[in-house]
Amino acid sequence: MKPRITVLTLGVDDLERSLTFYRDGLGLPTQGIIGREFEHGAVAFFDLQAGLKLAIWNRQDLAHEAKVPLKSPSSTEITIGHNVGSKEEVDKIMEHAQKAGAIITDPAHDAFWGGYSGHFLDPDGHLWEVVWNPEWEIED
C-alpha cells in the first residue's frame, strides 16, 4: 500500500454544529455542506495542507455507508495532531479553539520530550493535539 491518505473523516452527531465549529470557529476553509440531495450523503470537506482534507459526516450515515454498527464514541481512539512552528502559535491556537467552543483537556505546556503541546476536544469529543516539536520543520 502506498501512503496516499487524502481524507480524514470524523463522524459527528450534529453536522451543522460541527460545520460552525470548524469553519467559523477554527477558520478552516470549506464550501459547506454538500450532498444533501442524497440519503445519507450530507458531508462537509475542509481543505488542509496540499492533498489532504478533513471531512465531517453524520455518525449514523457513516455507520450506514461502512456497514458497521453505530457505537458510543471514545475520545481516546485517535488524536489529530496539528503541528505548528512555535510555542506562541500553540498558545494562540489553543485560545482560538477554546473561544470556538472546544473543551481544553490539557492546557499547553512544556512536554517531557522537549516540545510544547496541549489538547482539546471538538464538539463531538474528537481529540486534537496542538504541538510544537523543535525537531520538526514546518513548511507553509
Structure description:
This protein has helices at residues 15-25, 59-66, 87-100; strands spanning 7-12, 30-34, 43-47, 53-58, 79-84, 103-110, 116-121, 127-132. It has 140 residues and is of the alpha/beta class. Strand 3 and strand 4 (53-58) form a beta hairpin. Helix 1 packs across helix 3. The longest helix has 14 residues, at 87-100. The protein is globular, with a radius of gyration of 16 Å. The chain starts with 6 loop residues before the first strand and ends in an 8-residue tail after the last strand. The mean pLDDT is 94.
Which helices and strands occur, and which strands form pairs?
Elements: E1 7-12, H1 15-25, E2 30-34, E3 43-47, E4 53-58, H2 59-66, E5 79-84, H3 87-100, E6 103-110, E7 116-121, E8 127-132
Parallel strand pairs: 1-4, 5-8
Antiparallel strand pairs: 2-3, 3-4, 6-7, 7-8
Helix pairs in contact: 1-3
List keywords for this structure.
140 residues, alpha/beta, four-stranded mixed sheet, 3 helices, 24% helix
Report a brief summary of the structure.
This protein is of the alpha/beta class and 140 residues long.
How far apart the termini lie comes to 27 Å
For the largest beta sheet, what order do the strands appear in spatially? Answer: 1-4-3-2
Relative helix content: 10-25%
Largest sheet: 4 strands, mixed
- Return residue spans where pLDDT drops below 50 for at least 5 consecutive residues: none
Separate helix tally: 3
The proportion of strand residues reads: 25-35%
Radius of gyration: 16 Å
Q: Helices and strands, in N-to-C order?
A: EHEEEHEHEEE
